[in-house]
Amino acid sequence: MVLDRLSRLAGRIRREVVRTDRTPGPAFWGTRESLALGLAMIVFGTLGAGLWGLTSAAHGSLLNGATVEATTEMAPARLVQSAAADFVYPGGSPRLTFPSAGSAAVEVEGYGLMGHSGSLDQQAAIASITKTMTAYVVLRDHPLGATESGPSITLTAEMAAEYSKAIDQDESAVAVRTGERLTERQALEAMMLASAGDMADILAIWDAGSVDAFLVKMNAQARALGMTGSDYTDPTGLAASTVSTMADQLKLAEAVQQLPALTSIVAESDAEVPVAGTVHNYNEDLGTYGIDGIKTGTTAAAGSCLLFSAHYTVAGKTVTILGIVLGLSGSTGTPWSALTAAGKLVASAERALGTATVASAGQTMALVTKTGSATERFGPSRAVEVFGWAGLAFRVTVEGSASAPRLRVTRTGATGDEVSTALHVLARRASPAGSTVRKPESTPSASN
Predict the structure, then answer these.
(1) Domain 103-352, classified CATH 2.60.120.1440, yes or no
(2) pLDDT per residue over 139-160, tens digit each?
(3) Backbone angle region of 277, left / alpha / beta, with phi > 0 → left and psi within -120 to 50 → alpha
(4) End-to-end Cα separation, the chain, in angstroms
């Protein structure tokens, strides 16, 4: 019907225009028919142009003798990890020398547990190792620099009376008297080196006003450090009811490393205090295999015990070894059995430490691919090594951009130092055989 109407309109135009020098009369122009014809011509013209454009883009046409072809933009470069996501330090497991009795555990700070014998989470009496938490709480409340002496403590009659109480209980003690003035550091030295029980009680009273109030602080601090298996019932460890676990004591040993004043005190072989004079450290392992702390302990309930730290340098890297030995034979005096066992354990741990190669120089660790071009292989220019021991697991990841990839190696589940190194182009791998790559006349910019 539309075509018929247009045909009739066209006939009317022809009748109006009989000659080329004749124009349509005023009777036609301005009528509804002339307007309809104009709109129809506009619509058909637009549709025709659109169809022509689509046909030209899809199939091409000859313009001035040149062939115009549609081109496809190249895909952006893509970084692909070709290395395994996990790396395990070869060798199976570390060969550690544990005592034949009691229990023991050893770790490398920041890298994790190397091994243990006995339960990590079983509660046991810890004897004078308890004084480590006593010192930790005092220093958190009254901080000292590594070599500072701190404030003076004037002993009251109540404080001085702790000496006779300790002697009556056959506990280690240092002589004190009412009115004696000693610094915070001297009090800590007497407690940590000579394992003086009376000085532990004196510090508790000085810090919190009473032993009971101080015990509340000790247990609160234990929970703050995540020591869920510990229960402190006295500041000295003489009570069999004061118990902890090897896992908890390793957490405390880690916390001690953050207090330079405490690490410097426990590394001393002896010290001077006003009334008692020279006090000696019960830790006879000091200086052996890098051992520099932390606290001995002996009671009938706990046996011979030692919470220890050692610093060891391997392959130019100095690490902190922490460990504990509990429940060996011996109940009074110097805990020789624990000291001997700890020395052997530290020595075996140090022998187990070393470095392993995650990626050798020139080894392919990542690929950079791009549609229609060669594949680039990336690897390190030098060997990538990690510090650790047999069985230690690491996570290997390739990160960064296609233009600047990096290899990152981190200890799985721990906070030890990570290794991060740049990867470099090794070689270019050609496109698959038989494939055809069309190079566009103009290459669009791409962001890699």
Answers:
(1) no
(2) 999 999 999 999 999 999 999 9
(3) left
(4) 59
Distance CA 328, CA 93 (A): 25
What's the gap between Cα 306 and its chain centre?
A: 29
* Number of C-beta neighbours around residue 66 at 10 A: 6
* Stated length of the chain: 448
Average pLDDT over residues 302-330: 96
Place of tokens 């883009």: 57
Give me 146's structure tokens: 């590594």
CB 240 within 8 A of CB 301: yes
Map residue 225 onto helix, strand or coil.
coil
- Return left, alpha or beta for 446; rule: phi > 0 is left, psi -120 to 50 is alpha, else beta: beta
Written as six digits, the tokens of 38 are 């104009």
CA distance 211 to 215: 6
Q: How far apart are CA 437 and CA 74, in angstroms?
A: 10
Element (H, E) at 320: strand 317-328
pLDDT of residue 36: 55
Q: Which amino acid is at 362?
A: G
- What percentage of the chain reaches a pLDDT higher than 90? 73
> 201-260 pLDDT, tens per residue?
999 999 999 999 999 999 999 999 999 999 999 999 999 999 999 999 999 999 999 999
CA distances from 138 to 3, 135, 213 (A): 103, 5, 13
**CA atoms 111, 117, 121, 124: torsion sign:** negative
**What pLDDT score does 41 carry?**
55
| DSSP string over 146-210 | TT----EEEPPHHHHHHHHHHHHTT-------TT-EEEHHHHHHHHHHS--HHHHHHHHHHHHSS
Q: Where are the domains of the chain?
A: 2-61, 78-88+356-429, 103-352
Q: How far is CA 253 from the centre of its chain?
A: 19
Phi, psi of 435 (to 5 degrees): -85, 145
Burial of 204 (0-12, 13-18, 19+ CB in 10 A): buried
- The packing angle between helices 130-141 and 184-193, to 10°, is 170
